[in-house]
Design goal:
- There is one protein chain.
- By secondary structure, the protein is α/β, with parallel strands linked by helices.
- Helices cover about 35% and strands about 20% of the residues.
- The chain has ten helices and ten strands.
- Helix 6 runs parallel beside helix 7.
């Protein structure tokens, strides 16, 4: 279980995240919604320890994440995979080598840069790509892919970390509706089949309602809604999104996107 207690992140007098407390059971898929600047990305970055909290605690499986340092922190970032909006792939590198960068936590920077990976790890990377329907691109340079394909490669890279928790920060914000559907289908299937907890920052309401077991709404760094998709009324959602409500309601992946676009198989070795 992920437990967040009175978590705060202040930048001078301003609080990007303000006294948030949440408990997320293992295997749940949670959509975090809110307007731009509501604190969604800052919250995820603190869970991954890419940003340091000003106050509060984060625990996972009873271990205090906010107290980790050095090698223990390094290990946590392997267990807590992050998928970013901008993909963060190396364009000139092959797809499979981009995926293998997810194993850097299990080696070291020098080994990863020299691309010294064993056959078992390469097989793991191919299986991850196959789950995302991307195995045929393994030897292509990443820069030849479309945006939707790049995001699927980024998810495969996260999978080879063999994480227990996956964070997705606006994973479909820069994608067209068809590619957004494929990416969200993949994230939910990973959640359901592997039992990996997923926290996803999502701008559109339909996407959150379609894919998530639970929705957490943020306003000005505070939790103002925490419940199931059915419990979130349109009125509450419009209050959460404010001036961005029309965009949040008019775009997104709708309830037609309930079945994975690709057959997805369990990844061997995933925890």
């Amino acid at each position: 279980m992920l437990e967040i207690t009175q978590l705060t992140k202040a930048f001078g007098p301003n609080k990007a995240v303000d006294n948030i407390t949440l408990s997320v059971p293992q295997g749940q898929m949670v959509g975090v919604i809110g307007r731009s600047g509501a604190g969604k990305s800052t919250l995820l970055r603190m869970v991954n320890r890419l940003a340091e909290p000003t106050d509060g605690k984060i625990l996972f499986g009873g271990r205090e994440v906010t107290a980790l340092r050095g090698r223990a922190l390094h290990a946590w970032r392997a267990e807590c995979a992050m998928v970013f909006q901008q993909f963060n792939l190396v364009g000139r590198m092959s797809v499979i080598n981009n995926v293998l960068m997810g194993r850097i936590f299990h080696h070291g920077f020098a080994t990863a840069m020299l691309q010294i990976f064993g056959p078992e790890e390469r097989a793991l990377a191919i299986r991850a790509l196959d789950r995302l329907g991307m195995a045929h691109t393994a030897l292509q340079r990443a820069e030849t892919l479309s945006g939707g394909q790049m995001q699927r490669v980024a998810i495969a890279r996260a999978l080879v970390q063999q994480p227990k928790l996956m964070l997705a920060d606006e994973p479909i914000a820069s994608l067209d509706p068809l590619n957004a559907k494929v990416v969200m289908d993949a994230l939910r299937t990973i959640n359901r089949e592997d039992g990996i907890t997923v926290l996803a920052n999502l701008h559109t309401l339909d996407t959150a309602r379609t894919y998530c077991d639970r929705i957490v709404g943020l306003m000005e760094g505070r939790v103002v809604f925490d419940g199931t998709p059915d419990q979130l009324t349109d009125r509450q959602a419009r209050e959460i999104y404010g001036a961005e409500a029309d965009d949040a309601f008019s775009e997104g992946v709708t309830s037609t996107a309930l079945r994975p676009a690709q057959p997805v198989r369990a990844l061997e070795g995933a925890e």
